[in-house]
Amino acid sequence: MSRVGVVIVAGGSGSRVGGAELKQLRWVAGKPMLLHSLQAFQSIPEVAMVVCVLPKQYAGDPPPWIFQSDPERMLISVGGKTRAESVSNGLEDLPAECTTVLIHDAARPLVSVPMIRRVMDEAKKGHGAIAALPVVDTLKRVDADGRIVETVSREMLWRAQTPQGFPRDVIVQAHAEAKRAGWHAEATDDAALCERLGIAVHVVRGSERALKVTEAADFARAELMAGWNEGDDA
Ligand SMILES: Nc1ccn([C@@H]2O[C@H](COP(=O)(O)OP(=O)(O)OP(=O)(O)O)[C@@H](O)[C@H]2O)c(=O)n1
Ligand SMILES: C[C@](O)(CO)[C@H](O)COP(=O)(O)O
């Protein structure tokens, strides 16, 4: 059986949210954001290890609530300057037995187990897989003055979320190649690293509930979403 390793990146500074407390450690829907994701992934028996990537100052002195998980299946790694660097550090610390890897943003606390399973099952087929949602609004490209330049077709456009899953050797190679080629730092997700190498990555259905807390107002949105039952769309 292929063992699954998870990297949860929580190494960012949350500059768009602002405030004194790091966003990924703040509470949403009854517990710290990171703990929501950590417990969701650990509830899946195939998950052998979850690496939580924390900013340097927290990695050596983690918040005590992080141990309200299965400590036998949890490791802490040190974050890097960019998201990609944090992912890369987490990948290095995953035990060798983990041949499939799921990568997730701590900033998406409401990830559901069915959504994780959709990504995991697709990645186990031997290619990349990401949670995503089709674009439903009409899209406009604008100039620097906010004047519309054109309407962009939304056909075939999807919004990327996390988790994103890959065979381990594939994503490790994609990170290594991106570092060599000098575009590692600019990648905003892991699928992008594979796309540039021509490695196949498929979308599976994501969820509106798995929103990314990016700006201060997103905390209120996440609280509302937490109480929303998506039923089969979870
Ligand atoms: N150097 C970094 C940057 C980001 N992340 C993580 O990547 C996820 C997605 O990033 P984002 O939401 O953009 O978080 P921040 O980078 O912290 O936010 P900002 O860009 O507003 O500073 C978050 O869980 C964040 O903690 C990380 O582990 N290491
Ligand atoms: C990985 C991601 O969450 C997919 O939507 C997103 O790209 C992270 O981007 P950010 O620039 O770190 O907010």
From TrEMBL:
Site note Transition state stabilizer, residues: R16, K23
* First-level EC class: transferase
Tell whether Nucleotidyltransferase is among the UniProt keywords: yes
- What Pfam families is this protein classified in? IspD
GO BP annotations of the record are: isopentenyl diphosphate biosynthetic process, methylerythritol 4-phosphate pathway
Q: Which UniProt keywords apply?
A: Isoprene biosynthesis, Nucleotidyltransferase, Transferase
- According to the lineage, what is the superkingdom? Bacteria
The record ties this protein, via HAMAP family, to: IspD
**Similarity remark:** Belongs to the IspD/TarI cytidylyltransferase family. IspD subfamily.
What name goes with this protein? 2-C-methyl-D-erythritol 4-phosphate cytidylyltransferase
Give the originating organism: Pseudogemmatithrix spongiicola
Write the lineage as a comma-separated list. Answer: Bacteria, Pseudomonadati, Gemmatimonadota, Gemmatimonadia, Gemmatimonadales
Q: Which gene encodes it?
A: ispD
